Amino acid sequence: MKAARYSQFGGPEVLEIVDLPDPHAGPGQIRVAVHAAGVNPTDWKLRKGLMGGELPQTTGREVAGVVDEVGEGVTDVAVGDRVFGFSPDGVGAAELALLSDYAPIPPSLGFAEAAGLPVAIETATRSLDALRVGAGNTLLVNGAAGGVGNAAVQLAAARGARVIGTASPAPDGVDAALDVAGSGILPELIELAGGPEDVVTIADFAGAQEHGVTFSRGDDAGRAVHALAQIGELIESGRFSLPVAQTFPLAEIAEAHRVSEDGHVRGKLVLLVG
Q: Which of 51, 90, 172, 199 has a CA-to-CA distance to 61 between 20 and 30 Å?
């Protein structure tokens, strides 16, 4: 299969399209013929060597495609089904990918739209769960314009919460604050929320340690993958949408990384594979 890979850390130019052996679905896994794969800031941070790891590395965590092989014990999907989900080993930018966490693509969505959902939905849901956001709460989101922030605003509203952005006045304070942007304003968020226990950041690890704020990370223990299966109802009822800002063929993955790294994207960046 064709897949994106890099053999050294560096700029987007280190990315190359190579031939790799076709993977096969193990127990509890499915294999999909990839139609689209999402591009996230984590991808270029890994490529630059900012998050460690061995070389060579493949890339891509978000996938949408058609099931073409089902592993032992899998009964909830069949060959030919349209699904989206996570590539656990980060080989999403490829012609074939193995998925363990997945859900049916909502009927109204194409592959590109579905490929942009997993990271934003999981991260936003995990963060809202950590903040115990529910009906009647007021949530402040720092960084609401990006994919995760956008998702958090809509999912919090669907829970019945009142949501405001950092540009809005909050004279009466808020019940909870979510920092998506990592722009160094945790002390201000703590003051607004009334204490560090009501603030979660996904972008400021050092600040979280300094100020006693929860840093939410997507490790296996705390992941909110259940959100994938639940998002379809909100999408089909018109209460959730996550726009695709730009698409690129797989061969132009380096350009997709450049655009992501530039940091001025409103919506998701998606690679079109098949």
A: 199
The residue extents of the domains of the chain are 2-117+242-272, 121-220
Architecture of domain 2-117+242-272: Alpha-Beta Complex (3.90)
**Tokens, residue 132:** 């115990």
pTM exceeds 0.90: yes
Write the pLDDT tens digit of every residue in 154-167: 999 999 999 997 75
> What secondary structure letter does DSSP report for 6?
E
Is CATH 3.40.50.720 what the domain over 121-220 is classified as, yes or no? yes
By mean pLDDT, which of 133-142, 231-240, 255-264 is the weakest?
255-264
Distance (Å, rounded) from C-alpha 45 to C-alpha 54? 14
H or E segment to which residue 66 belongs? strand 62-70
